[in-house]
From TrEMBL:
Gene from which this protein is expressed: ggt
Protein name: Glutathione hydrolase proenzyme
GO molecular function: glutathione hydrolase activity; leukotriene C4 gamma-glutamyl transferase activity
Subunit structure, as described in the record: This enzyme consists of two polypeptide chains, which are synthesized in precursor form from a single polypeptide.
SUPFAM superfamilies: N-terminal nucleophile aminohydrolases (Ntn hydrolases)
Transmembrane annotation, as ranges: none
């Protein structure tokens, strides 16, 4: 009976009557840390809805995963209400008012070798995360903000135990953390990475969270916290001003909606490139299905075909995409069927394309974190949040406990010069005051007549290809555990190579892909940290799974 209701609900939604709730009768949270998942579930059990739970989960992640996302960063949240309306909360960082296109170049016009777009306070955009908490809580949540921040405040004040993942990422960023005394004081012990099990306390961060709980966004963006932040940042050579903080605004946007076969996918819109790139890849698949290239495709045919889709979408990302408030992105043209048919038409079944000769539109880790939440009334949240690199810029404002992001590196700091993820870009994504850097973060919802899923992952430029492969697996009916653990591969146009996890291909597949002309680049480690909640409409069952590559936890709890 239950399953029939769900099927009817889904079919109505797919038919455009998106008003019937996706009543699963299950609360579920999947996040990258057990303490965060537990805080989210607790919110659901004590009067909160999915939006309360998402805030509680994200706030704890900001404390216990200081390397991944936090109050000094930003992100994108897809919120789906009971009536199935979905809104995207754009909490992306903005470039400070004194930013300009050449700010990371030396006098010769070359990228500065000391990498100020990655390390130290010049790397940081104005954070959006505190504003997102206040905004979502005010408009969508049931519980007071203080209740949703309580677990995070307690963990910041009383401390949490350092785990292996913390140690890995702190070791990787130790050099920059040591350069900033307050970062070293909080995140290191006598200049060394603390042992597993050490209690890490962040009392200044607890105070700042209290201010936010007390006064909402103003508690962060004006008043004493803002003053202290600006003092600390400027004393260390940064350019933030009180006016930059006061001007920060959340933007509510429509998500990108993709219809492919019987699936409806909702995902991040600009200034994340994720939605546009996914729309292009699915659009090319619709224009030229794989069976037009191979009557009976095998695994290598599929890898080749999907790689070529990625290559083409990432090229348009590099050429055309940026903050839509600053750049006229030819969105309609990039999604038009004649353009996508032409792009897909250039895929050769037996040869890898050369990234340099693609047709143009002619117009113009392990760090970062994802959380997925479902409540028993069918509200859904898919949120990807970031401070960019592990420990962001490495600079902690001592007075406020805020660790600054290094999201400025997501801009094209010089046209054609790859950023930290090897992504190239041009004028569309150059640094400009007040602008949001182009992102790849792609929190996503998908509904088919058979299944519904909440999906997302960190992983820099590879986020989009991971979500793409995950969505295809959802549509193909793969089990939840297999979807998050599947070996991954990726192509991003430049560098012109298939990047892959060590175990992604069999020797025979490698041989055949190379014979097609693909360059294979084993990245030497696993990547991504996917958090998936999957509802099967036939059985009525919801499963939540955390990527085995991480230390996350996912729990699905039926509600009586
Ligand atoms: O917005 C972006 O695309 C990046 N700042 C995301 C960074 C990320 O996922 C790092 N994870 N490994």
């Amino acid at each position: 009976m239950l399953s029939r209701t769900l099927i009817v609900a889904t079919l109505l939604a797919l038919a455009g009557c998106a008003t019937t709730p996706l009543s699963t009768g299950t609360n579920a949270v999947a996040s990258a840390h057990p303490l965060a998942t537990q805080a989210g579930l607790q919110a659901l059990q004590t009067g909160g809805n999915a939006f309360d739970a998402a805030i509680a989960t994200a706030a704890v992640l900001a404390v216990v995963e200081p390397y991944s996302a936090g109050m000094g960063g930003g992100g994108f949240w897809l919120l789906q209400k009971r009536n199935r309306e979905t809104v995207m909360i754009d909490a992306r960082e903005t470039a400070p008012g004194q930013s300009h296109p050449d700010m990371y170049l030396n006098e010769a016009g070359e990228v500065r070798s000391d990498q100020p777009s990655l390390n130290g306070p010049l790397a940081a955009g104005i954070p959006g995360q505190p504003a997102a908490f206040a905004h979502i809580n005010r408009l969508y949540a049931e519980r007071p903000l203080r209740a949703n921040l309580a677990a995070a405040i307690r963990l910041a004040r009383q401390g949490f135990r350092i785990d292996e993942r913390y140690r890995d990422l702190a070791s990787w960023r130790r050099k920059v953390l040591r350069q900033h005394p307050d970062s070293a004081r909080v995140f290191l012990h006598k200049g060394k990475v603390p042992e597993t099990g050490t209690l890490l306390r962040q009392p200044a961060l607890a105070d700042t969270l209290e201010q936010l709980a007390e006064d909402g966004a103003e508690g962060f963006y004006s008043g004493p916290v803002a003053r202290q932040l600006v003092e600390d940042v400027q004393a260390a050579g940064g350019i933030w001003t009180k006016a930059d903080l006061a001007a920060y605004q959340i933007i509510e946007r429509d998500p990108v909606t993709i219809r492919y076969r019987d699936a409806v996918i909702q995902t991040a819109s600009l200034p994340s490139s994720g939605g546009m790139a996914l729309a292009q890849m699915f659009g090319m698949m619709a224009e030229r299905p794989i069976t037009e290239l191979y009557p009976e495709p095998d695994a290598v045919d599929r890898i080749h075909y999907r790689t070529e889709l990625m290559r083409r979408a990432y090229r348009d990302r590099a050429r055309h995409m940026g903050d839509p408030a600053y750049t006229d992105v030819p969105r309609e043209r990039l999604r038009s069927s004649d353009y996508l048919a032409r792009q897909a038409g250039s895929i050769e079944p037996l040869t890898a394309s050369d990234s340099r000769t693609l047709f143009d539109a002619g117009t113009g880790g392990r760090h970062t974190t994802h959380l997925s939440v479902l409540d028993s009334d069918g509200r859904r949240v898919s949120a990807t949040l970031s401070i960019n690199w592990p420990f962001g810029s490495g600079f902690l404002s001592g007075q406020t406990g805020i660790l600054l992001n290094n999201e400025m590196n997501d801009f094209a700091i010089k046209p054609g010069v790859p950023n930290a993820y090897g992504l190239v870009g041009g004028k569309a994504n150059q640094v400009e005051a007040g602008k949001r850097p182009l992102s790849s973060m792609s929190p996503t919802l998908i509904d088919t007549p058979q299944r519904s899923a909440i999906i997302g992952t960190p992983g820099g430029s590879r986020i989009i290809s991971m979500v793409f492969l995950g969505l295809l697996d959802v549509m193909d009916g793969h089990p939840a555990g297999a979807i998050v653990s599947r070996p991954r591969y990726h192509h991003q146009y430049q560098p012109d190579q298939i990047q892959h996890e060590p175990e992604a291909f069999t020797p025979d597949q490698r041989f055949r892909l190379q014979a097609l002309g693909h360059r294979l680049e084993n990245v030497g480690r696993e990547y991504g940290n996917m958090q998936l909640i999957l509802t099967d409409h036939t059985s009525g069952q919801t499963q939540a799974v955390a990527d085995p590559r991480g230390i996350g936890q996912a729990i699905a709890q039926p509600v009586d």
